[in-house]
Specification:
This is Signal recognition particle protein. It catalyses: GTP + H2O = GDP + phosphate + H(+). With about 450 residues, this protein is an alpha/beta fold. It has 21 helices and eight strands. The structure holds guanosine-5'-diphosphate and magnesium ion.
Length: about 450
């Protein structure tokens, strides 16, 4: 996929101490192909490459000690910018109810997203009302009612014999009467964009004056999703896009092109059929995900609440100098443990994912207890320089910790791998100052 391809490109750059114009050109050719292959809009790719190239050939890069990383940083920033820069929040009306109107083709995920949004708003302490505005698709009303029941959120319906515009009008009135703070209008879709659909949506729009018009598009349809977004936007002036089915085998092109083509930000992404599979869209996180940097920002956010900043700084220094010992390993485990389920945390750290598969490293919390026991059974000399831990020392450690030789062996192997990874990570740090933002 896109991530693998980009990682290959950057893998070549990463080790380089000096970078020539040819290196940049080669890399940009590969990035261009990778983006096109991921079904990113042609014009978007062209502009993107132009911008990155201009910056990559600048002075800052050639004078850096780690030009490869600086280029990755540039690509990361431009990708983030391409997707809107910062997170776009839902509009809110100062005089409730805030009206959210859903739009999109049939099967894109409007009704499901309506339910998911309702759940999200409810969790934030709001009282949404859902309006069943799809009178055409058989069982569409029922589908919304079932979702409403699951969530304990009321659904306003007038059956399928009243016009959607009238349903929307009366639904909104009901929300005002009953003091709901949010209204979400589910609407009908078609297989293709047609006049009649647009006319109806425009009427609902005129009638309810929504604060938010969310277009729901299926990420799996790639370029088509973007074209659909562009046509809807011409007629309906959208305020945001919801990209669904990102859990499927998508090539990523839609996420990268929507904002550039329509000017309309992606506000949410959906990653599954379940009601809690909706997430606010963070351009910077998506960019690092695409670049295979792991979801470092989510991790950092989590870490900020759980990790002692001074200790983190010290750890960073050690990583930079590759001075990592078993004591640090243990301490880091302790800190990471406070962040949440370890498996989830590991997934967010670059490289960890692969390492987990490679060494079938299992990190449940019980395991951590055993790891701690092993490390505690080491002498301080062993903790400082694990290289001295030979066979007989390993056996002693296993006995001392009440574990097995195999477990001790495995831990030492994991430690070595981790150390290697730390080296890699430290190579990604910009030596001129602070952490490289590409991480
Ligand atoms: P609508 O016609 O636009 O209202 O689409 P629906 O909400 O009825 O969704 C169509 C189908 O797509 C349903 O089977 C949903 O469960 C499924 N669906 C919606 N969003 C997602 C998603 O993010 N991931 C996956 N895998 N399926 C989704
Ligand atoms: Mg529907």
């Amino acid at each position: 996929g896109l991530t693998t391809r980009l990682q290959n490109v950057f893998g070549k750059l990463r080790g380089k101490g000096k970078i020539s114009e040819d290196d940049v050109n080669d890399a940009m050719r590969e990035v261009r192909l990778a983006l096109l292959e991921a079904d990113v809009n042609f014009k978007v790719v062209k502009d993107f490459i132009g911008k990155v190239k201009e910056k990559a050939l600048g002075k800052e890069v050639t004078e850096s000690f780690t030009p490869g990383m600086v280029i990755i940083d540039i690509v990361n920033k431009e990708l983030t910018e391409l997707m809107g820069g910062t997170q776009s929040k839902l509009n809110k009306n100062n005089r409730p109810p805030t009206v959210i109107m859903m739009a999109g083709l049939q099967g894109a995920g409007k009704t499901t997203t309506t339910g998911k949004l309702a759940k999200m708003l409810q969790k934030q302490g709001n009282r949404p009302l859902l309006i069943a505005g799809d009178i055409y698709r058989p069982a569409a009303i029922k589908q919304l009612q079932v979702l409403g029941e699951q969530l304990n959120v009321p659904v306003f319906s007038l059956g399928d014999q009243v016009s959607p515009v009238e349903i929307a009008r009366q639904g909104l009135q009901e929300a005002k009467d009953k003091g709901h703070d949010y209204v979400i209008i589910d609407t009908a879709g078609r297989l293709h964009i047609d006049e009649q659909l647009m006319e109806e949506l425009k009427q609902i729009h005129t009638e309810t004056k929504p604060d938010e018009v969310l277009l729901v598009v299926d990420a799996m349809t790639g370029q088509d999703a973007v074209n659909v977004a562009a046509s809807f936007n011409e007629q309906l002036s959208l305020t945001g896009v919801v990209l669904t089915k990102l859990d499927g085998d998508t090539r990523g092109g839609a996420a990268l092109s929507v904002k550039a083509v329509t000017g309309c930000p992606i506000k949410f992404i959906s990653l599954g059929e379940k009601l809690d599979a909706l997430e606010p869209f963070h351009p910077e996180r998506m960019a690092s995900r695409i670049l295979g940097m792991g979801d470092m920002l989510s991790l950092i956010e989590k870490a900020q609440s759980g990790i002692d900043e001074k200790k983190a700084k010290e750890m960073e220094r050690k990583m930079r100098n590759a001075e990592f010992t078993f004591d640090d390993f243990l301490e880091q485990m302790e800190q990471v443990k406070q962040l949440g389920p370890l498996d989830q945390i590991m997934d967010m750290i670059p490289g960890m994912n692969k390492m987990k598969q490679k060494s079938d490293l299992k990190v449940d919390d019980k395991q951590v207890g055993r790891i701690e026991a092993i490390v505690h059974s080491m002498t301080s000399a062993e903790k400082q320089s694990p290289d001295i831990i030979n066979y007989s020392r390993r056996k002693r450690i296993a006995t001392g910790s009440g574990t097995s030789l195999a477990e001790v062996n495995r831990l030492i192997k994991q430690f070595d791998e981790m150390k290697k990874m730390m080296k890699q990570l430290s190579g990604m740090m910009d030596p001129k100052g602070g952490k490289n933002k590409a991480m």
